[in-house]
C-alpha cells in the first residue's frame, strides 16, 4: 500500500485534499500497488502511525511552490502559490519515511520538497538565474506537447538510476519553474541536465529505495521504458517492505 501526498485546494466554499489522477494511475499501472491518499493535515497527521501502515510513499508534483522560509530564503513568489498544509505534512513525512525505511519516490514538487527536507535550497525562478536552459513548459501547448520529452539527463554511474537504464543518458520531460540550488545534506546526485542542474537524487545510505526526480515519470508510464523502470523498481521496494512487515 502506497501513500500519495495530497495538495490542499479550496473547491467552492470547502477545503479539499486532492491528488492528481496521473500519479494514482502511475503507481497502479507502473508499480502494481494499492494507492491511498494521505491528507495534508500538518500537525494533525500522526506521521509515524501513518507510515507504519504504508509500504511506500509517493510525493507528487504540483503547481504550488515550497515556502522559501523553509529553506532560509525570502519570498519572491505570490503567496497564493504556496500550499502551507502540504509543506507542513510532506517535510515531516519525508524525514520519518527515510528514517524508518519506507521506500520513497518523489516527483517534481516532491523532488523539490525532499531537497528542502534535507536542508537544501531552491532557485525560486530558475529562468532568471542565468546559465540555465528553459525548464518550464509552454502553457500554450497541448498537454501531450507539454509532457513530451524535452531534454537529456546524464545518469551518474553507480547509483539507483544507473541500475535502471542502459546507457549514460536518458530523455525526460521538463515542467518546472524552480530548481535545486544547493543540494541537501546526505543526498547523492543521480542525474543532471546538460546545463548542470540536478535533475535526480537519492539519499546516501538510505535503508530502502529512495529516488527523487525533477521530471514526470508518471506521464504515460506504460509507454516509456525508462519511466516504467523507475515505477517498477519503486513497486518492488514496496513489496519487499510489505514482506518484511508480514503484509506481503
Ligand atoms: N511548482 C514547482 C513544481 C513543478 C511541478 O511539480 N509541476 C507539476 C505540474 C502539475 C503536475 O504535473 O502534477 C515548480 O514550478 O518548480
What are the main properties of this structure?
248 residues; alpha/beta; Rossmann fold; nine-stranded mixed beta sheet; two-stranded antiparallel ribbon; 28% helix; 23% strand; binds ligand LF53FM6H
**Can you tell me the overall shape?**
globular
Task: Supply the CATH superfamily name.
Answer: Class I glutamine amidotransferase (GATase) domain
Number of helices: 7
Question: Can you tell me the CATH architecture?
Answer: 3-Layer(aba) Sandwich
CA radius of gyration is 17 Å
What's the quick description here?
The chain has 248 residues and is an alpha/beta fold. The chain is built from seven helices and 13 strands. α3 packs across α4.
Structural overview:
It is a single chain. The protein is α/β, with parallel strands linked by helices and 248 residues long. The protein has a single domain, classed as 3-Layer(aba) Sandwich (Rossmann fold). Helix content is 28%, strand content 23%. It contains 7 helices and 13 strands. The strands form 3 sheets. Strands 4-1-5-6-13-12-11-8-9 form a 9-stranded mixed beta sheet, sandwiched between helices. A two-stranded antiparallel sheet has the order 2-3. α3 crosses α4. The radius of gyration is 17 Å and the shape is globular. The model has no long low-confidence stretch (mean pLDDT 97). The structure holds ligand LF53FM6H. The ligand N[C@@H](CCC(=O)NCCCC(=O)O)C(=O)O binds next to α4. It is an enzyme of class 3 (hydrolase). One of its GO terms (biological process) is polyamine catabolic process. Its EC number is 3.5.1.94. Keywords: Hydrolase.
Amino acid at each position: 500500500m502506497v501513500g500519495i501526498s495530497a495538495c490542499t485546494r479550496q473547491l467552492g466554499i470547502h477545503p479539499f485534499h486532492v491528488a492528481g489522477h496521473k500519479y494514482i494511475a502511475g503507481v497502479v499501472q507502473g508499480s502494481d500497488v494499492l494507492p491511498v491518499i494521505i491528507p495534508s493535515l500538518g500537525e494533525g497527521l500522526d506521521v509515524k502511525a501513518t507510515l507504519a501502515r504504508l509500504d511506500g510513499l509517493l510525493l507528487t508534483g504540483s503547481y504550488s511552490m515550497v515556502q522559501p522560509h523553509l529553506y532560509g530564503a525570502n519570498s519572491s513568489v505570490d503567496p497564493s502559490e504556496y500550499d502551507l498544509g502540504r509543506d507542513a505534512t510532506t517535510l515531516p513525512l519525508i524525514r520519518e519515511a527515510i528514517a524508518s525505511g519506507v521506500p520513497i519516490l518523489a516527483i517534481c514538487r516532491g523532488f523539490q520538497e525532499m531537497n528542502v527536507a534535507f536542508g537544501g535550497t531552491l532557485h525560486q525562478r530558475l529562468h532568471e538565474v542565468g546559465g540555465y536552459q528553459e525548464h518550464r513548459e509552454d502553457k500554450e501547448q497541448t498537454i501531450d506537447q507539454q509532457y513530451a520529452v524535452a531534454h537529456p539527463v546524464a545518469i551518474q554511474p553507480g547509483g539507483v538510476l544507473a541500475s535502471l537504464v542502459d546507457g549514460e543518458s536518458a530523455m525526460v520531460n521538463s515542467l518546472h519553474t524552480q530548481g535545486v540550488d544547493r543540494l541537501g545534506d546526505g543526498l547523492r546526485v543521480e542525474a543532471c541536465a546538460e546545463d548542470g542542474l540536478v535533475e535526480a537524487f537519492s539519499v546516501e545510505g538510505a535503508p530502502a529505495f529512495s529516488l527523487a526526480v525533477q521530471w514526470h515519470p508518471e506521464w504515460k508510464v506504460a509507454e516509456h521504458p525508462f519511466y516504467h523502470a523507475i515505477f517498477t523498481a519503486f513497486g518492488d521496494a514496496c513489496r519487499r517492505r510489505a514482506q518484511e512487515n508480514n503484509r506481503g
